[in-house]
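Notes, Module 5: Reading structure tokens.

Key idea: the token line is not a picture. It is a compressed description, and you learn to read it the same way you learned to read a sequence, by spotting repeated patterns. We will look at two proteins. The first is printed below with its tokens.
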Amino acid sequence: GDLGENQLFWGQKELQQILLLLLALVAVPWMLFPKPFILKKLHKERFQGHSYRFLGTSEMDPDSEPDSARSRHDDFNFGEVFVHQMIHSIEFVLGAVSNTASYLRLWALSLAHSELSTVFYEKLLLFAWGYDSLIFKLVGLIVFAFATAFILLGMESLSAFLHALRLHWVEFMNKFYHGDGYKFKPFSFATLADDEE
């Protein structure tokens, strides 16, 4: 849609769309490529000048080299680091798309509730107010009040609760929760006081 007089400057819509698209296209490779190559460079720098072998009981016996010395050069696997970073990048992009869809869904629901309230107002209250009968106006007002209280307010409250729960579960968890094997321990002031003693 056209922003009309709400534009901050001429061409704002086009510039923002192009800029955001370019930023999104640059951000994905920026998340994916630097970390594995930086880690590879750091690993090479760490062992620069440490390419000598330990002398064991026999210089000709490669099995006599200690395991710690041999594994020190082999502990960096570029492919594994790259695949791990690729998985995290894909998760981040999918999470961003999912979160955007979540907020669009919230916007659509609020728009639907706004339209529903307009329908109730126009088809119940204004329709009843068009008649001269006081009883008809009173019935229209009562039906409008019940529709507003039970349908709009009830649905809106339930919707707000469910969306808060869903946003916490889906969006909060995909940013901060890592199932690293730590047992969940709920916060309690009693256990906090016990730990301090």
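Here is the second protein, with the sequence above and the tokens below, as before.
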Amino acid sequence: MKVMAIMAHPDDAEVWAGGTLAKFTHMGHQAHIVVMTYEPHHLRGREAMEGARRLGCSVDLLGLPDTGVRDTDEAANRLVEILGIQVPQILILHNPDDTHPDHEAAFLLARRALI
């Protein structure tokens, strides 16, 4: 089985779903994290990459700037491509009622990519 977390920021998967991802990888399942924003010179990004490694997760980085997640065709198409490659059976997304603009946009992008 493959589980995928689609998150806005580098540390969101570890904060919001770290236990779930760890449980799946511990049980021998594959886990993948898609991070919308990533700026390698930021400490948070480096720490999140190490966190994903420790959780046993592979990672795709879309490289959008922090506070720059937008529901665009380009970002949605990239997610469609990743979903087609990874083919997850379980998705972990931001809460649709989350009021953080990047979290809201990440949820909307994931929903659009799935439709």
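Summary for the second protein:
- Residues 2-114 form a domain with the Rossmann fold fold (CATH 3.40.50.10320).
- The beta strands are 2-7, 30-37, 58-64, 90-92.
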